Amino acid sequence: MSPPRPALAAARRVVVKVGTNVVSRDGAVALGRLGHLVESLAALVQGGRQVVLVSSGAVGLGMERLGYAKKPRGRVDQQACAAVGQGLLMGLYDGFFQRLGLSAAQMLLTEDDFHHRARSVNLAATLERLLARGAVPVINENDVVSPDPLAIFGDNDRLAALVAAHVDADALVLLSDVEGLYTAPPGTEGASLISTFTGQSVAIGGLSTGGRGGMGAKVEAARVAAKAGVPTIIASGSVPDTLRDILQGLAVGTLFPADTTLSRRRRWIAFATAPQGTLHVNQGARDALVERQASLLAPGIVSIDGPFDEGAVVTIVHDGVEVGRGVCARSSAALREQLGKTERGKPVVHRDDIVIEVATTPSQESP
């Protein structure tokens, strides 16, 4: 009999993300759980799959080593903890994987690694080479140099989704401290596990007590990955053999089915970039973009926000609603000189460089 989720059973390339509450317990590393995780990942590799691990936990380990009784609030203190903890975390992974005959490869990323096209391409090439050589990339946010106070990726959930899209993964597994997405907070009357997410209204706030992400960040990340063509599971990392069961196609956790397939370049435009400006367009341009998949021409632009250079990713907006994102062929200065003119000229944003209806961030009540 076929498994309930055949796409997951057939997945060859898998990205697995583990949260802070999976790799630690009471502020200290959960060695037994970490060891079991590595054994599960090694079994996947030895069974012919390729695995990328995205792991949180560095700040927590650094706190313990530096003598903090609780997580410090200051950015510099947190980054100091990350600087100490990242080496400790990687040392644990490297030791566990070596005992099982595998090599772990550390990769620390920041948001800029995805925003800049050249760095994004180099990142994908490096990951491809590591996987081809049988290594297990272990990825974490580079908290030590990130300008935002350790909140860019939301406990690595969004980072895992971007990586999954970047390497054309067949599945993304987000392992957390809960069994999946519920219709209401677990433990409340009537709360039930959602097996397959189809846009239901659910209570997603306050389900994670540690880390930085919470269930809201996980739902957003799962939707981004699914939009990029990667089926995603949110499940418990505390239950033995969860990963094995998921990749046997069993109905474990909450599945976010893949709902579209975008090219790697379009995925980069849609999800991995921070738009540098905004093009406000009229109704005619909006209809041409959405209904006819046309290019954006200069006469359709009403106004422009922000300075940006040629080749920047911009948001395209009509009446305050985002239509999509695209790579602009002209600078903001050049475009402003064309406002109000009727010459069509070459496309401002070519149809091949536009992604319509980019995935949005879910609200706290209705993802």
How do you describe this structure in short?
By secondary structure, the chain is α/β, with parallel strands linked by helices.
Provide a descriptive summary of the structure in words.
- It contains 13 helices and 14 strands.
- It has helices at residues 6-9, 20-23, 31-46, 58-66, 75-99, 112-115, 117-132, 157-166, 214-227, 242-246, 264-271, 283-292, 332-338; strands at 13-18, 24-25, 28-29, 50-55, 104-109, 136-141, 171-176, 232-236, 254-256, 277-281, 301-305, 313-318, 321-327, 354-356.
- Residues 203-211 and 359-367 have low confidence and may be disordered.
- The strands form 3 sheets. The protein has a 7-stranded mixed β-sheet, with helices on both faces.
- 36% of the residues lie in helices and 19% in strands.
- The protein is an alpha/beta fold and 367 residues long.
- Helix 8 runs parallel beside helix 9.
- It has 2 domains: 6-264, Acetylglutamate kinase-like (Carbamate kinase, 3-Layer(aba) Sandwich), CATH 3.40.1160; 275-356, PUA domain (Archaeosine Trna-guanine Transglycosylase, Chain: A, domain 4), CATH 2.30.130.10.
